[in-house]
Amino acid sequence: MYVSSSHRARDEEALYILQRLRGTSGEDAGKAEHELAQIRNVVDLEKRTSHGTTYFHMLFGIGSGKLHTARRVQLCIWLQILQCWSGIAGITMFGPVIFGIAGYTNSKAQWISGLNNIFYMFSTLICVYTLDRIGRRWTLYWGSVGQCIAMFLTGAFCRLGLDATSQSETGAAARFGAAAASMVFLYTFIFGATWLTVPWLYPAEIFPLQVRAKGNAWGVVGWSIGNGTLTLVLPYIVGAVNEKTLYVFGAVNIIAIPIVWALYPESNQRTLEEMDMLFASDSIWNWEAEKTFKMLKEQNPDGVALSEEEVDSKVFSNVVEHV
């Protein structure tokens, strides 16, 4: 009886807060009640279909049912790996060399490289304005395009600068080096406005309530894998191909675009309760996820049908299987 009374008290408290946020009169009448019903039903769904909440269960999707937790884990891990291999670690390591080509002394090149490492902190302010307006996917798209261009231009200017240095053309080498250095700053600026932010935000948005904290931890796992592998192999890559390493990072940015387009559903302007519908499809492809989401939203505009009973019904199963 105490537990039941406690739950009712918390429901009343939640309804009160939602009513203060959504309003209770005119067009806002009933919005808080609908949202609370949606939250309740999603919680019931997650309790019903998520039988295991350990990291092992999440990684292999054991007991997650239509929540497809394992797919979400893989998306978060690989998004972080793509972020690491998009070039930021390479710029951090190769930066002093690029600034050295520009004619700066070793100490000054190190100082400018350190300044560049904090430069993109200011570019994150762009995300404050754009992220919710254009969405996560388009943020990654334009970031990949800009980073790719910056990487290829940096590599090209570095090669021209090195060739000029070998021919004792110090003036030309300094100009090409300065151009390469400017491309480095451009890259970090774009990175800070796009790929720095989204891979950390995405895990916080897509996981079910019961495993949301652990879902964010899986994002950190991906970041560790990406940085770890890159730190181990980058010295060998740079030693083998020198400035062409930057072309490798440019190619990774090109590859990232179709990967994001095909596999990563848009989480922007969607409630946390809608994420379970977004990942209800058994297909890994984004267009199938969107198709299933649209159908479920049309049938259940308030999310009420996503209750424990609805998950057990043949209607819900047939919708997911035939989309």
From TrEMBL:
Domain Major facilitator superfamily (MFS) profile residues, every copy: 1-268
GO cellular component: a single term: membrane
Protein known as: Major facilitator superfamily (MFS) profile domain-containing protein
Single Gene Ontology MF annotation: carbohydrate:proton symporter activity
Sequence intervals crossing the membrane: 75-99, 111-131, 138-162, 174-196, 217-239, 245-264
Keyword annotations: Membrane, Transmembrane, Transmembrane helix
Highest taxon listed in the record's lineage: Eukaryota
Membrane topology: Multi-pass membrane protein
Subcellular localization, as worded in the UniProt entry: Membrane
UniProt xrefs under Pfam families: Sugar_tr
Similarity annotation: Belongs to the major facilitator superfamily. Sugar transporter (TC 2.A.1.1) family.
